TrEMBL record, chain A:
Residues 1-25 form the signal peptide. The gene is LOC105222535. It holds the Pfam family CBM39. It comes from Bactrocera dorsalis. This is Gram-negative bacteria-binding protein 1. Belongs to the insect beta-1,3-glucan binding protein family.
UniProtKB/TrEMBL annotation, chain B:
It is found in: Secreted. InterPro entries: Amidase/PGRP_sf (IPR036505), Amidase_domain (IPR002502), Peptidoglycan_recognition (IPR017331), PGRP (IPR015510), PGRP_domain_met/bac (IPR006619). One of its GO terms (biological process) is innate immune response. SUPFAM superfamilies: N-acetylmuramoyl-L-alanine amidase-like. This is Peptidoglycan-recognition protein. One of its GO terms (molecular function) is N-acetylmuramoyl-L-alanine amidase activity. It holds the Pfam family Amidase_2.
Length: 487, 192
């Protein structure tokens, strides 16, 4: 009797193991594409357990769902250890190919949407994730496959979230960056090399250094110009970022500057990175674990920025969202005695350039310690009604949409959008550190060395460095991870 | 001598068997794009091989030429996608009285024909109403060929179970006369 029970147990465990082995242990590898003759082939490698494979392929049209592609093919036999579908259609160099793959692995089906494949380089190198070398031989392009839908729960609940190029299910982790390795993952992040664009709200920095990636952590450290370039003279120098400049709106302002009189070169050198070429989304939940900078007149950039600037480029007409924002000063008060320094955390939207309106669309929470003392988890949930903000899992406020009707936010173009306009478009992620500027520190802050409307603002900030330099003891932004979930 | 005759006889038998085995060739299938169908709004691939085949009728007009069949198919697809909000035409295959098999969602892609049997079943509909009459002989032959082809291609389970829609859901489909006919088919089962 006891023996029988044992046998049952053993076979049960055995079955369980097998079940897991067979059913759940498969992840669709990156799809490879190869140009061949008058057409192209798509394939994935064979693996024991694969029964059949289907590919759906679109040219220049992202999939909105796991829908039928312009080309659709299914194979039930492997060839040379690969599952291959050949499509007889000549591609153009400027085509972008979208693929989703569906695999029967034993008795389960798995599917995943691939990242888009550029058939050729995009001119000016904006969105070229995969590059093809035009050779006589067919070239194999590898794409990065987003996480497959969890097969154990293959009911994909509809989501509000929209992602460039692919579909998601509610709750799905659609972006994850843990900063592993020794350098920034260039398929996800690009460095910005430019000066600030908006004249009415220009921070006093040059974005042109690299971040450090070590021990699973991103570190962005702002430096005083002279520290890196002892010869650079911000009062007489001439800066031309040349072809390295990543400006995409106004290269006259963003890429070149001749110091003269009150016009100085940016006194602070720092880094700013974004996912513009690789990842953008509309509606979702962003979570960032970070240690914010400490030091007078510094502030972290944990932003969502608009992909297309549909409502205009100037003066935040297309909006900006701040997942978290502090004025990193160790002590900062307004003349009215209101605490403004690093103990006050803000989250919200920036819809106007003026410093006097900077807090209009923001919520805040105050702590006893500076937010730069330790790591915190900052999150923004962005849906079609409002922005909601949390720190360490605690909600501290939300901002309702309707900005087109708001007296401080009115912009005629927004009335063409929905309730959240201008925050009803796709946004990408930006991380960085900035300093000074005309829009983030209001003029009634005590001991502020510059006036926001003064043409000498940056110069006066620089001249005051004897006072603020010593406070930059921990000026770096440290980011442990960034995650985005579909909602 | 005797041996070689035996060998000859065996090879003959082998040839005959081989030819007959090869007879399970697939019927002509008009693809969805050929009859003017729209792409599916979403595709759900099925786990192969498929265990059930469910027979239906469309309760529409009949057709015995391509143009008429295509027109019925297009209307059916529009009705299924727009009014019923299906992802595609509901059946995996449809068969006209012209003896042509028309592709619906096709092999291995889930249709919307029989509640509870969409994920593991293939739905085949005869175009027309078969409560009081049979589909054409060529239509019935095409259906049988399609089923044999499905087994040969590994799309259908070797021991697949053939059912009428009326056996597993509250419908008259595929009509009583056609239901009587398929009861004589090899894989029909009284019990679902």
């Amino acid at each position: 009797m006891k023996m029988r029970l044992w046998l049952w147990c053993i076979s049960f465990v055995f079955l369980c193991c097998c079940g897991i082995q067979n059913g759940f242990a498969y992840k669709i590898p990156p799809v490879e594409m190869e140009l061949k003759g008058e057409g192209f082939i798509v394939s994935i490698p064979h693996e024991a357990g694969i029964e059949n494979v289907a590919f759906n392929v679109n040219r220049n049209r992202p999939f909105k769902a796991f829908e039928q592609g312009e080309f659709s093919g299914r194979v039930s036999t492997e060839t040379n250890n690969r599952w291959i579908v050949e499509i007889k259609r000549r591609l153009r160099e400027d085509d972008t190919i979208y693929i989703w793959t569906d695999v029967q692995f034993n008795k389960n089906r798995f599917r995943s949407m691939s990242s888009p494949i550029m058939v050729s380089e995009v001119p000016s190198g904006v969105i070229a994730i995969n590059e093809i070398v035009h050779d006589k031989k067919p070239v194999v392009i590898t794409t990065e496959t987003p996480p497959a839908i969890d097969p154990r729960n293959d009911i994909c609940e509809p989501t509000l979230t929209i992602i460039r190029n692919r579909n998601a299910c509610r709750g799905e982790l659609i972006f994850e960056e843990n900063f592993n390795g020794n350098e920034l993952n260039a398929t996800r992040w690009r460095y910005e090399v430019r000066m600030p664009l908006d004249i009415a709200d220009a921070e006093f920095v040059l974005y042109d250094t690299n971040a450090e990636v070590t021990n699973g952590m991103l570190k962005i450290e702002p430096r005083i110009w002279g520290n890196d370039n002892p010869d650079a003279d911000i009062r007489r120098g001439n800066l031309n970022l040349g072809v390295r400049c990543t400006a995409y709106q106004n290269s006259d302002i963003e890429c070149r500057r001749q110091a003269f009189g009150r016009v100085v070169l940016p006194p602070i050198l720092t880094a700013r990175i974004n996912t513009k070429h690789a990842f953008s989304f509309k509606y979702g939940r962003v979570e960032v674990r970070a240690k914010l900078p400490q030091g007078d007149w510094l502030f972290p950039l944990l932003l969502l920025e608009p992909l297309a600037n549909l409502y205009g480029q100037q003066a935040y007409a297309s909006g900006q969202m701040r997942i978290a924002f502090i004025r990193s000063n160790l002590n900062l008060q307004t003349s009215g005695g209101i605490e403004m320094g690093g103990r006050v955390l803000y989250g919200g939207a920036v819809l106007r350039p003026e410093a006097s309106y900077r807090n209009t669309f923001m919520v805040n929470t105050t702590r006893d310690a500076h937010f730069g003392e330790t790591f915190h988890i900052y999150s923004l949930t962005w849906d079609d009604q409002r922005l909601s903000f949390e720190v360490d899992g605690q909600k501290y406020g939300s901002i309702d949409g309707g900005f087109a009707q708001h007296e401080m936010g009115h912009n005629y173009a927004w009335t063409n959008g929905n309730h959240m306009a201008p925050l009803d478009q796709e946004f990408f992620i930006t991380l960085g550190v900035a300093a000074g500027g005309h829009g983030d520190f209001s003029d009634d802050c005590l001991s502020k060395p510059w006036a926001n409307t003064s043409p000498k603002a940056a110069l006066n900030f620089w001249r005051d460095r004897g006072n603020w330099k010593s406070t930059w003891t921990n000026p770096s932004l440290m980011v442990d991870y960034v995650r985005v979930y579909a909602i | 001598m005797r041996n070689s005759i035996l060998l000859l006889v065996f090879s003959l038998i082998f040839c005959v068997i081989h030819t007959f085995a090869g007879k399970t060739e697939c019927p002509r299938i008009k693809l969805k794009r050929q009859w003017g169908g729209k792409p599916a709004k979403a595709l759900t691939y099925q786990v192969r091989p498929i265990r059930y085949v469910i027979i239906h009728h469309t309760v529409s007009g009949e057709c015995s030429d391509f143009l008429r069949c295509a027109s019925i198919l297009q209307n059916t697809q529009t009705y299924h996608m727009n009014d019923l909000d299906y992802n595609d035409i509901g059946f995996n295959f449809l068969i006209g009285n012209d003896g042509i098999v028309y592709e619906g969602t096709g092999w291995g892609v889930r249709g919307a024909h029989t509640y509870g049997y969409n994920m593991n079943g293939t739905g085949i509909a005869f175009i027309g109403n078969y409560s009081e009459k049979l589909p054409s002989r060529s239509a019935l032959t095409a259906a049988k060929k399609l089923l044999a082809c499905g087994v040969k291609e590994g799309e259908l389970d070797r021991n697949y179970i053939l059912l009428a829609g009326s056996q597993v859901s509250s419908t008259q489909s595929p009509g009583l006369i056609l239901y009587n006919e398929i009861q004589d088919w090899d894989h029909w089962s009284l019990v679902p």
